[in-house]
Amino acid sequence: MEKTYIVMAKQVPDTKKITGKAMKEDGTVNRAALPAIFNPDDMAALEMALRLKDQYGGKVVVLTMGPPSAVEILRQSLYRGVDKCVLLTDRKFAGSDTLATSMVLSYAIRKMGGYSLIISGRQAIDGDTAQVGPQVAEKLGIPQITYVEDIVKMDKNTIEVKRIIENGFATQSTPMPALLTCCATSTSFVRPCSAKRIQVYKNATTPSELMMCLMKDGLSKEEAAMQTAKRLESNGASQPIEEWDISKIDLDESLCGLGGSPTWVKQIESVVLGTTEHKRVPATDAGISELISELITEHIFD
Amino acid sequence: MTNKPTKPEVWVFIEHDGKNISETSLELLGKAQELAAKRNGLAAAVVLGDQIQYVINEVSAFGAQKVYFVKDKRLNEYHTLSYTRALHDLATMVKPEIFLFGATIVGRDLAPRVASSLRVGLTADCTDLQIGDHSARGEDFKDLLYQIRPAFGGNIIATIINPKTRPQMATVREGVMKMPERNGSKSSSIEEFVPQLEDSHFVVKTTSKETKEKTINLKGANIIVSGGAGVGGKDNFKLILDLAHTLGGQVGASRAAVDFGYVDHDHQVGQTGTTVRPKLYIACGISGAVQHLAGMQESKKIIAINKDPDAPIFHVAHYGIVGDIGEVIPKMIKAYRQRGVL
Fold first, then answer.
1. In chain B, which residues have their Cβ closer than 8 Å to the Cβ of A157?
2. How far, in Å, CA of B23 to CA of B14, rounded?
3. Number of other CB atoms surrounding residue A255 within 10 Å
4. What is the mean pLDDT of residues A188-200?
5. Which domain holds residue A39?
6. Number of domains in chain A
7. Domains and their CATH numbers in chain B
8. What is the pLDDT of residue B342?
9. Among A165, A164, A156, A199, which residue's Cα sits nearest to residue A56?
10. Is residue A227 included in any domain, yes or no?
């Protein structure tokens, strides 16, 4: 039977792009200045899944939960070669912590049906928690291997991988279905978007995107909804990006969103960088020589 | 057999291999005692395995007032599924107030799975833990665990609470809690627990392992020379090695430098790397993402070298040099060598 690999991915603000320009005058970060990107560890997961498809055949499905605009990473996935995408979006999912998020994802995966592997990034760069992978595996009752560096081999029922352990690497095998998480370093190369696939999928939209577009063109909400429904019907099963809400996955509202989240955020403080004056040292022989002397006097090198 | 304790308990999962105990576990025992004292409770170590007398003695010496000895020969080796089952069953029976794990590779593999199975909240990579109250939604909560962690690449510090579920679970970053004093004369009460394990908990098999001794010790270094994305390439990174070598220091790196493959992850300083407090920290071509600053800003002296005069790194530096590291580093090496012989 053909194998299905499910990739769980997230769209995140690029927290690495924090240079002088992204700092506000009060020393806090201007989040609006940060672009939204495909989470790097998840991109490695996508590449890993596509390589499995190249080598062993099968089908890759990308699953993401987020606001309607997260569809962008799904199009990116289609351009790189995945077969199908699902966007989980619903206001009722908003405010989910990792436990609630893993609940939503696990319900969605059950809805999707059979699969051999779930692959996700180890963690997302906006929260760095590394929790969602293991929590989805627990809820689905399948084994997990985290910190995967490489796939060694796969046969009908088993996959063998190389993973990071404290001070080194281990080779481990697990029966499938199983869940793997991998780091951005796992794949030194991520395939580029294929020009041909961009032509095919650049207009792939979700119903809510289509509706917004039509409303922007001046249609009323009712008219836009009607047009959208028509378009969906004509696309039928060939719709490459599906959009699922809470009713589609049969999840009880109390298990997701703020209400389904045991962790509450009590307080958020922006980190304000100290503005203590530092000594400017000229980048000259004399300047640097004086700096070294000062450090020697203060016994810094002792 | 284990009974529900009368006092609130603060648990620490002890990561060990029978002969060595993870430093983070011992650091957490120190914090657990402090938290337990505030709650008028007990700090307890949770140790899994079979031949673990040495580990029990050590955790007692480092202040565990109680030890849960989760006994099964098959637990001598770490397996996600068997450990999850054992900890789930023990925590369900005893209901500790707080359950802490090191944010190590094992801790970050295990804690989320245990939290999910208990359907409780978990906060990752905490840098501080405190006890305090909270009022919200018309309810008052007393003596909660404040789980304090950086998020959003370290640009914000969030305080997270789990008001309604127990245990309150957290993983804690390596090196941020102070190592408690070892007192060999201390002893603790021991509770033995035999978990119900099945073959299905051991389906993930380890076929081989390659480990190497850590060649660097950033935590203990007096001098650290670190390179970032601004170094510009793997070849240029040699400058960082040269300066570190000249000054007798260790080599550090920002996450960007590691991601670009200039140097491996063992060298990473910051939120997802090592937290360091050397006497001298030289940041070369590091712009200063807060996630990096969080891991080094307590260094005694900080020198920042960067081409961008507005780089955030200068906010935490004591000395700032605006310039190209290709020119500045050779000058530093020369200046140090000349002063060194005087």
1. none
2. 10
3. 17
4. 91
5. 4-204+240-260
6. 1
7. 9-202 (3.40.50.620), 223-340 (3.40.50.1220)
8. 44
9. A156
10. no
**Which residue on chain B is closest to A152 by alpha carbon?**
B207
Among A29, A99, A175, whose Cβ lies nearest the Cβ of B121? A99
pLDDT at A143: 98
Q: Residue type for B309, please? A: P
Which among A97, A271, A292 has the least Cβ separation from residue B156? A271
Report the first-to-last Cα separation within chain A, whole angstroms.
Answer: 67
In a domain, A50, yes or no: yes
**Amino acid A17: pLDDT:** 67
For range B130-149, the mean pLDDT: 94
What radius of gyration do chain A's Cα atoms show?
Answer: 23
Q: What is the pLDDT of residues B47-95, one digit of tens each?
A: 999 989 999 999 999 999 999 999 999 999 999 999 999 999 999 999 9
Tokens found for residue B84: 């999850």
Asked if residue A181 belongs to a domain, the reply is: yes
Whether residue B153 and residue A165 make contact (CB cut-off 8 A), yes or no, is no
Q: Which of B8, B101, B93 is nearest to B46 (CA)?
A: B101
CATH code, A182:
3.40.50.620
B304 in helix, strand or coil? strand
B300 CB neighbours in chain A (<8 A) are: 300
* Position A70 in a domain: yes
- Per mean pLDDT, which range of A23-32, B143-152, B332-341 is the poorest? A23-32
